[in-house]
Amino acid sequence: MEEAPLLAEIPRLRRYARALVGDRAAADDLVQDTLERAWSRRHSWQDDRPLRPWLFSIMHNLRLDQLRRPGIAPQSLDERIPEPGTRPTQSDALELADLAAALYRLPEEQRAVILLVALEDMSYDAIAQTLAIPRGTVMSRLFRGREHLRRLMAPESGVTHLRVVP
Amino acid sequence: MTPQPIHEDELQAWADRRLPAERQTQVESYLEQHPDTHARLQAYQAQNRALQSLFQPVLEEDIPEHLQELPRPAPLLRQRFLTWPWQSAAAVLLVLSGALAGWQAHTYLPSPSLAAALPRQAAIAHAVYTPEVRHPVEVGADQETHLAAWLSKRLGAPLRPPRLGAQGFELVGGRLLPGGQGPVALFMYQDGGGQRLTLYVSGEGSGSGDTSFRFSREGDVSVFYWVDGGFGYALSGTLDKASLGTIATQVYQQLEAR
């Protein structure tokens, strides 16, 4: 495997990691770990296979390792308003916060499926492979996650502007 | 033959436009009979678009340098003792040029360039407010005089929503939004098919020079934007570039004529 195709995937990996994790530095760390692991295993890689799904599954496994690691408390929801690409203006920040606040109230397993559909346009079967779960589980997480998000974003739910989580 | 029952998985797939064409059509006719389900699936589609808009900018960011350095075999000595002075020198240069650029930007571009921030802010406002069914605007078109007076007062300049009836779009109403340094007005229009456009007007352009028409695509949302006389304008919609461009020209001409 050459370096260039791997480096070409960085923007996509960063976007997904940022959306999944929320925090910019933590997301970039996850991307870096993914690249390093992929690079260290490049000799076992067959060039005729598509690179991206392989990278996403590496990232997913690393993320699971992180979440399982003892001693690292999961960040509170409030700290995980994602950092958008450009410095947010006040209006950006408010509007992003609505969607983001709802997004980070979802269980991560639901958020992952929603993001792979919305951002990566990945097929349901490819998502099942990437996350190493049955397709039926992909579909139920997608359904539950979307419904959850829809209720959170509904104006009458009264939680979209809530910033403080008890 | 009676059509097969429709499973929830297929509804999800319909929202993502992933069903085979024939099945997509069958589900569509089912949805015509079930408006609640249809609205639910449309909300999922709006979620997809909003998430794309939210995270699109990450794709355009400069990639941090440390991510581009894959571990490679290099003699340790060379790395330690030969490279570092150059790296430090480069770092000093970077800091200097950054400071210089900042100073220049401060001198010549008073606010972080309005034109640069406009399309993204406008697209986000579009993505957030157009899916709203119950509260798309704060003040409806039935109170157009009040709407114009209110937003003019808040933006500190006479402002009247352009008329786009000839293009098939009627005013739904407007709302006030916070911008980077002050208020922003958002007008919403809708055509007979329920397609919505938004016109984002920011009064923060007093330090920015006028610009020509520019076009940007933010996820699914197309945006024509320009800065004129201290105001930034952005027209956003999901229609094709040519149609949106025609309407943007119309908006510009009506604003010019005042």
Give the tags:
heterodimer, A: 166 residues, Rna Polymerase Sigma Factor, Chain: A, Arc Repressor Mutant, subunit A, B: 258 residues, 3 domains, globular
Describe the structure.
By secondary structure, chain A is mainly alpha-helical. Chain A is 63% helix and 0% strand. The model of chain A is unreliable at 71-89 and 158-166 (pLDDT under 50). Chain B has helices at 8-15, 21-33, 35-60, 76-108, 114-129, 144-155, 241-256, and strands spanning 139-140, 170-178, 183-190, 196-202, 214-218, 221-228, 231-237. The termini of chain B are far apart. Chain B is α+β, with helices and mostly antiparallel strands. Chain B contains 7 helices and 7 strands, in the order αααααβαββββββα. Chain B has 3 domains: 8-58, no CATH class; 73-108; 114-256, Phosphorylase Kinase, domain 1 (2-Layer Sandwich). Chain B is globular and about 60 Å long. At the A-B interface, helix 1, helix 2, helix 3, helix 5 and helix 6 of A face helix 1, helix 3 and helix 5 of B.
CATH superfamily of the largest domain in chain B: MucB/RseB, C-terminal domain
Helix content of chain A: 55-70%
> Helix and strand string of chain A, N-terminal first?
HHHHHHHH
Taking the alpha carbons of the first and last residues of chain B, their distance comes to 62 Å
CATH architectural category of the largest domain in chain B = 2-Layer Sandwich
CATH homologous superfamily assignment of the largest domain in chain A: Winged helix-like DNA-binding domain superfamily/Winged helix DNA-binding domain
Classify the oligomer: heterodimer
Total of domains of chain A? 2
Low-confidence stretches of chain A: 71-89, 158-166
Text of the CATH class of the largest domain in chain A: Mainly Alpha
Structural class of chain B: alpha+beta
